[in-house]
Amino acid sequence: MEIKIEALTFEAVSKAVSEILKISETTLPEDTLAALNRAAAKESDPIAKAQLESILKNIEIAGEKSVPICQDTGIFIFFIEIGREICLNFDLEGAIRDGCVKATENVPLRPNVVDPLTRHNTKNNLGDGLPELNYSFVPGKTLKITVAPKGAGSENMSALKMFTPTEIPKIKEFIVKTVMDAGGKPCPPVVLGIGIGGSFNQSAKLAKEALLEDIRNPDDENSGYDDFEKEILNAVNDLKIGCMGLGGDTTALSVRIKKASCHTASLPVAINIQCWANRHATAVYSGGEQ
Amino acid sequence: MTADEQTRNQTNGQTQNRTQKIHYLTAPLSENDIIQVKAGDVVYVTGIIYTARDEAHLRMLEFDEKGEALPFDLEGAVIYHCGPVMEKIKKINETEETDFSEPKWKAVAAGPTTSDRMTKMTPDVLKNHNIRALIGKGGMENTAETLQKNGCIYLSYTGGCAALAVDMIKEVKTVYWEDLGMPEAVWELRVEKFGPLIAGIDTNGKDLFQDVKDRAKESFKKQFA
Question: Which domains does chain A have, with CATH numbers?
Answer without folding.
Answer: 2-25+69-151+280-285 (3.30.360), 46-64+153-274 (no CATH)
